[in-house]
Amino acid sequence: MHRRKFCKTALAAGLTVALTGCDISPSGTKNQASSTINAITGAGNEVSIERAAVTELAESLQGSMYLPGDEAYDVVRKVWNGTIDKHPAMVVQCGSVNDVALAVQFAGQRNLLVAVKGGGHSFPGKSTCDGGMMIDLSQMHGVDVDVDAKTARVAGGALLGHLDGAALAHNLVTTAGIVSHTGVGGFTLGGGMGRTDRLHGLAIDNLLAATVVTATGEVLRASDAENADLFWAIRGGSGNFGVATEFVYRLHPFNPSVYGANLFYSFDQARDFLHFYAEFNETLPDEASVEPQFVFDDSGGPELMVQVCYAGDHAAGEQVMAPLVAFGKRLSGEFGAVSYQQMQTSVDAMLAHGGLYYLKSGFFIELTEASIDAMVGNFEGDHLPFTWFQHLGGASARVAPDATAYPHRNVRFNYGIMDAWGDPAESDMRIAAVRRYYKALEPHMKGFYTNLNDDTEKKTRGNFGENYPRLVEVKNRYDPTNLFRLNANIQPTV
Questions:
Q1: Mean pLDDT computed over 70-92
Q2: What is the rounded distance in angstroms from the CA atom of residue 461 to the CA atom of residue 469?
Q3: Domain 3-14+257-452: CATH architecture, name and number where available
Q4: Which of 21-30, 455-464, 472-481 has the least mean pLDDT?
Q5: Each residue of 308-326: pLDDT tens digit?
Q6: Which CATH topology does 143-253+458-478 take?
Q7: This model's pTM is above 0.85
Q8: What residue segments make up the domains of the chain, in order of their start?
Q9: d(Cα 139, Cα 363) in Å, to the nearest integer?
């Protein structure tokens, strides 16, 4: 099936995925011959862990422990991106905050390599590891909405669909991403972009408090009033400072029926549209999210799609979108009332668990003649990726760059370059195509979204900009041994 046809089918059906965690009971470890378990430290050294100590940890858990050879091990070790196939020495599937603290203490005492899995959606695979400990939060996925206070208390292993579903049931919402089976943890700690970030700010701008298990196993509350330095750092500083086991978000009154559309144009209008879009964006209110995408038609040829979500009064949205309605010659697509929850789940099936994915992305402060030329002029050849804009600005731009660890407050767009495929034999070709197109766009970009990239220490340092020294101070305080290093890593200096 061609990608556009598949995408249209998913959009029309509003397909969803199962959001509850897998209810798996652990089997006994089959491989009991050795008295030790081979593992890897954070520094990459081999280490032997006494099996008796692992058994003691397992028996102390409310949740479950899985080791290689256990019946369910190959299920629980899997992450969303099928290109990532790693084998942790142990998977601790936590059932409580205390389980997380016990796992962290165990790993810290032995300097184990640690990965933290919530939704397991990390594109570069940072939620798993070879030879280390995976701390799996997937069974901790409760959401408690306080309608009067307009807040949501969300467990660290919950998915965005859990959060959206619970909040929208009360006509409330907070900013969440565009794939509902993404975990709230990684999404929020990296910043958190979505269809309402221009109206309500990023996820971190709606975060009121969090519970964090630090590298010593200490359970801390982080907010403006408690451990404020930690609270500042986790809002955009990724998973550098501990395991976030709970988030408290501000919710906003929301009409669950938005004014929206998926508009399709021939690709030969792409250049003109991006020029129009650069000017049109300057007129748009915070309620508007307008996101062009380069997709493919039923014959496999490139096509321009524009997804619109207006999260405000529909009559006002119709007036705001009048210039877009008048633009060019549409192939298909009409504006109308759209279920926001359906929009939020519209690509879940296309980006299902186990597919093969690769992505690069970067920020644009503005669309210039040169950047538009690079986007359109280099979108040619065989095995093209598909691309998409995330529309930023609005409320998220009215936060100071140093108010949170996330510094990219002046950018207008995040530009994603991605491919999805099913045949592993195509992986090298598909990845090369994404990298080739990204290389042409990178000179026009200004930084990147840490959740979507796997970059060097130098690039990470530069990407945090003037916030980096303060992040190092917080890292030194809460994780001086760099136990939590599988992230946009901040290197401790103590």
A1: 97
A2: 9
A3: 3-Layer(aba) Sandwich (3.40)
A4: 21-30
A5: 999 999 999 999 999 999 9
A6: 3.30.465
A7: yes
A8: 3-14+257-452, 36-136, 143-253+458-478
A9: 34
